[in-house]
């Protein structure tokens, strides 16, 4: 998930959110005519953010991968 968002494992919550927002704007399906590639990428970005922005989920992800 860190790679998807383009952040390091030591990234702060603020850095993760900043990168997430940038990527959402770039890959949002509404901005890209519903292109399937962007929809898939947007879903990956959202899932990565959901995990890394939640301290408990992030801790589990870091431990289990």
UniProtKB/TrEMBL annotation:
Keyword Chaperone: yes
Cell membrane recorded as keyword: no
Gene3D superfamilies, per database record: DnaJ domain
UniProt GO cellular component terms: endoplasmic reticulum
A GO BP entry: ERAD pathway
GO molecular function per UniProt: misfolded protein binding; protein-folding chaperone binding
Occurrences of domain J (ranges): 1-65
Keywords for this protein: Chaperone
Name under which the protein is recorded: J domain-containing protein
Organism annotation: Triparma laevis f. inornata
Taxonomic lineage: Eukaryota, Sar, Stramenopiles, Ochrophyta, Bolidophyceae
């Amino acid at each position: 998930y860190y790679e998807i968002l383009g952040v390091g494992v030591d990234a702060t919550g603020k850095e993760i959110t900043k990168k997430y927002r940038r990527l959402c704007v770039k890959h949002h399906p509404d901005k890209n005519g519903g292109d399937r590639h962007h929809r898939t990428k947007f879903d990956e970005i959202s899932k990565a953010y959901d995990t890394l922005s939640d301290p408990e989920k992030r801790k589990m992800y870091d431990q289990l991968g």
